[in-house]
Design a protein that fits this description.
Length: 167
């Protein structure tokens, strides 16, 4: 069986909001699919732990903390929501998925497997193995228009996960 072909998103914009809008337009279908998986995952984990989640409220609570630390990230998430045609809180929830899953009572073990070899030629790799239903919910990306462009991989709707910048 061959691996699915991944399209690299080439995200541009001279402001965080415009970069977000570009991401949202390019990734609308992937973001919608990823949100559907996470929405079900949040509910399933919470129900399994006899918890009730108010996902919009949790997402917006993380936005308040993010705005105090890095308001440009909030502006970029607002742009993603606009570009994808989704409510802002859904993009905030995707970006806060780990925190929301912790509130739902998800176990602290697991996550993705990572391997790094250190030496004259340091190399690293990561498996996207933490939830099978999210196996196709990621994409490579290049992002330009800020002080430092970067390239890497991330999940649909999430600003960045793993990558390197131009420095």
């Amino acid at each position: 069986m061959s691996s699915p072909r991944r399209t690299t998103l080439r995200i541009t914009g001279d402001t965080p909001r415009r970069r977000g809008e570009d991401r949202g337009r390019q990734a609308r279908a992937g973001i919608t699919r990823a949100w559907q998986v996470y929405e079900e995952l949040f509910a399933t984990v919470a129900a399994g732990n006899a918890r009730t989640l108010d996902v919009p409220a949790l997402a917006l609570r993380t936005v308040r903390a993010t705005r105090a630390w890095a308001p440009e990230l909030v502006a970029e998430m607002e742009g993603v929501a606009e570009g994808a045609g989704l409510p802002f809180w859904t993009i905030a929830a995707l970006n806060a998925r780990t925190e929301i899953l912790a509130e739902a009572g998800a176990p602290r073990t697991g996550e993705c497997s990572t391997l790094v070899r250190v030496g004259p030629r340091t190399a690293g790799g990561q498996c996207w193995d933490w939830h099978q239903e999210l196996a196709d919910a990621w994409h490579p990306q290049t992002v330009t228009g800020d002080a430092q462009g970067f390239a890497g991989i991330t999940e649909y709707g999430i600003l960045a996960k793993i990558g390197v910048n131009e420095a």
